[in-house]
């Protein structure tokens, strides 16, 4: 492949396998696109799909998956533990190879226009594609979630970037953007006390004075009766995973709580994991070429 763009759409369905498969099938159908990962989460009622390919093919796959989600997911019935504004909640484009961020911004604009024009779903642009300063951060765009946006979308300050200022009757709205790699990382606590997870999340969130590039919230995994610190690392080199993990572990200990596990959602850059290995193994003068598989990758 020459130019490569990654796309990581999040769909507001994690409990119906047949719906998830139908959406993913739309990605598989597109020539020149490689499906990398499908991560359904029943507790959050959300699925994260990751695929990569040539820019226009990736855009087509994203549109087709969004159209299928529009057909199969009814936001008037949907419930889940993760913030969301629509059936296809968010579609980010990430430059991978021989593609600039500006090209990904252009893709976001093209896709946003198509989703609004062909599907009747209002679209908001975020991160590098944001047209409005206070819409750069995804949490700001999602303020109030589906229910709140539905009540406020007619207000001028909440008008979409593409489409009419009204929600699609079943699919809601969609957020499209361009950004760098994001590591979605969740830490599960040995407690069902949600307030502890929320306090720990506040201690590491950038907006609460925590770590730069870290967004976090406390949620419940109802099927496991476990509280979770759900984290988005928007710059894993600026704030590495091990630093956040150690802080969460320390904060949890204050409440007499242990960490029972953690998880990565979707695919993750190798360097993010190598940084963790280097820290915990106290490796000296480590070079990624010491990883066997790295020497098998063709230039």
From TrEMBL:
Molecular-function annotations in GO: glutamate formimidoyltransferase activity
EC number in record: 2.1.2.5
EC main group: transferase
Domain Formiminotransferase N-terminal subdomain, chain residue ranges per copy: 3-180
Positions of the Formiminotransferase C-terminal subdomain domain: 181-295
Pathway: Amino-acid degradation; L-histidine degradation into L-glutamate; L-glutamate from N-formimidoyl-L-glutamate (transferase route): step 1/1
InterPro entries reported in the protein's UniProt record: Formiminotransferase_C, Formiminotransferase_C_sf, Formiminotransferase_cat, Formiminotransferase_N, Formiminotransferase_N_sf, FormiminoTrfase_cat_dom_sf, FTCD
Name of the protein in its database record: glutamate formimidoyltransferase
Lineage, uppermost ranks: Bacteria, Bacillati, Bacillota, Clostridia, Eubacteriales
